[in-house]
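User: Hey, my collaborator sent me this sequence without any context and asked if I could get a structure. I don't really work with proteins. Can you help?
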Amino acid sequence: MESVRQQSASSSYRRTTGWLFWLGAGFMTVQAQAQSLNLNQVVEQSTRQYPFLKAKQAEISSAQRRLQASRVEYLPSLIVQDQYNYATTNSLNGSFFPNEGTAISTSGGVRPTNISQASFGSFASAAIEWRAISFGRIKANVAVADAELQRSRVDYDNELFQHQVRTIDAYLLLLINQKLVQIQLSNLDRAQTFKRVVDSGVRSGMRAGVDSSLATAEAVRARILLLESQQQEQVQRLRLSELTGQLQQAMQVDSMHFYTTLPTTAALTDSVSPKNPVLRLFQSQIALASARSVATQRTSLPIISFVGVGNARGSGFSNQGDVFQTNQINGLGYQVSNYLVGVVARWNLTNILRVKQDYRSELFQVERSRQLFNEQQLRVNRQYQEAETQYQVALEQARQAPIQLRAARQAYNQAKSRYESGLTDLPTLLQSVLTLNRAEVDGYVATSNVWRFLLLKSAAEGDLSLFMNQVK
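Assistant: No problem. I've predicted the 3D structure and written it out in structure-token form, which is a compact way to encode the shape of the chain:
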């Protein structure tokens, strides 16, 4: 019996230890998940982890390799091949497989009679060609690859900039939603407290029964508003965590001095900054189209190359008369060799007409890119001016919000005192509650809008430092 009790106690101890372990691990997990992140941490995390940005970086690496590959065209090309075969020799002593055009041709005289007997043979060759004079064709191809690389880099810069703007905007929206939840919690607490006071008055016969119903309706409305604000907060939290590249349902953000101060910025200049990533991207498209048009035009020009070829052959057919060797396996070894050096020119004259039309087509692509740039520049200029107007309006609204909130609080306190002393009815008090709740919400939303429109100004300017320097 004593042993049984000891085993039972040991088992109980292990279960208790296990539960404590899992509770501790769960607590640590919740603490880790609930870690608060400031704006710089969120932006850094989103820049480092977002998959689409990694895809853009891969495009840059790919373009770099294409540029390196295009520069290889400056070097001579060397092709070697080796083969062993078994073939007949009618009019072709030492037949060989073309091997994708890497072997030079051979020829032989016509034999008076056809012999179906085959023999072993071998053939090896090495050919080198250096395109010494290409009239700028290779240089143009390298320029196209370089323009593609520059476009990939600018495309990444633009995508990074737009992603940071989206992340910061989502951060600001989560902040305001967190504050709205706090406001609705206070509003619910105020409504429930008020309901208890009204219910007490109704039960004592000092208030009409309809007041209890109105108070209950107001408490329920406050709870519904709280649920809606919590829903919006969670949706915004998931949206922000998606932009950071990792979904976090318990993600918390640090508000810094976001709700207590307003930014101070200088007025915008009259023109859009050339650093704007969107405009730089469209400019890179023009440069790429121009480079392609030049490369297309150069394809109609001739190429002059220095060539050298060496080959070695072996055959089971004897070169001492039209007879087979005694041991045909000897054909697998090399018996003779040759070399060839020279200068060759190649010019496809009929291709000039087709290239001419292709070149004109590329010129239209250049014009298309130029007009798209003009359209984008017009749009950015409009956003540039619009952002300043919206920012100034939001700034004035934020300055008026505290006045609205003070007046709403005074109205609520006065209505509450008058209701408690029996000088006014419940609907008047409820109207003051609604006014106070709306003023609290408007105050935080107005402040948030100032920061969001400041972000819009930075996006239009193409320089996030305008915003980031204000939140330090």
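In plain terms: Confidence is low (pLDDT under 50) at residues 1-33. You can pass these tokens on to your collaborator as they are.
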